[in-house]
Amino acid sequence: MPVRVLLVDDEPLVRAGLRAVLEAQPDIEVVGEAADGAAVIPLVRQVRPDVVAMDVRMPLLDGIEATRALLRTVADPPKILVVTTFEYDEYVYEALRAGADGFLLKRARPAEIVHAVRLIAEGESLLFPASVRRLAAEYGDGGGNRAARAEVERARLTEREGEVLRLMARGLSNAEIAARLVVGTETVKSHVSAVLAKLGARDRTQAVITAYEWGFVAPG
């Protein structure tokens, strides 16, 4: 089945460019477009995308609030890929904290756009881990987020789960973590699932953001 993508951006040229790039791929299908975050929820319910590629800055409802509303309102929500002009922007970090799964620069090359959509859809690796680390260092709480600290302390991760979380933060895939720890891929998947469940995170990105916010993983 192709990856179903919904495009949300107030610039028609950006939407047209993304559509042209994505629809050239046999395994990706653009199933809808919207010009503002306010239209996301009804469209998601209508077309059931796997990934929403969403501009972070829009006039009525920006990508941060649209992400929060989508995750709060829609059962089994799609993955959210924030599309932004500036890589090291506080808006991007706030979108990730709100629940976005990754971000993509508007100036990205076609191959990078396709790779980002596929990676986000698969959910087995962190998109642009170095950039997420830098964002956390610049805009995070430096380990001072009490809510994140309470979440991690309450989670009571095992030593191996903590090790897996640190490797997730470095951007390693399940297969790469398995090779590093000399265990099977299914074992890693079980550890990742346990980490997400214990932290109350819906995906790797949210788990890693929580780890940075507490200081369990150093962003530097």
TrEMBL record:
Listed CDD domains: LuxR_C_like (cd06170), REC_NarL-like (cd17535)
Domain (Response regulatory) ranges: 4-121
Residue ranges of the TM segments: none
Keyword set, alphabetical order: DNA-binding, Phosphoprotein, Transcription, Transcription regulation
Keyword Lipoprotein assigned: no
Residues of the HTH luxR-type domain: 150-215
SUPFAM superfamilies reported for this sequence: C-terminal effector domain of the bipartite response regulators (SSF46894), CheY-like (SSF52172)
Superkingdom of origin organism: Bacteria
Matches recorded under InterPro entries: CheY-like_superfamily, NreC/VraR/RcsB-like_REC, Sig_transdc_resp-reg_C-effctor, Sig_transdc_resp-reg_receiver, Tscrpt_reg_LuxR_C, WalR-like
Any coiled-coil regions, as ranges: none
Keyword Repressor: no
Entry-annotated residues carrying 4-aspartylphosphate: 55
Name of protein: Response regulator transcription factor
Gene source species: Streptomyces violaceorubidus
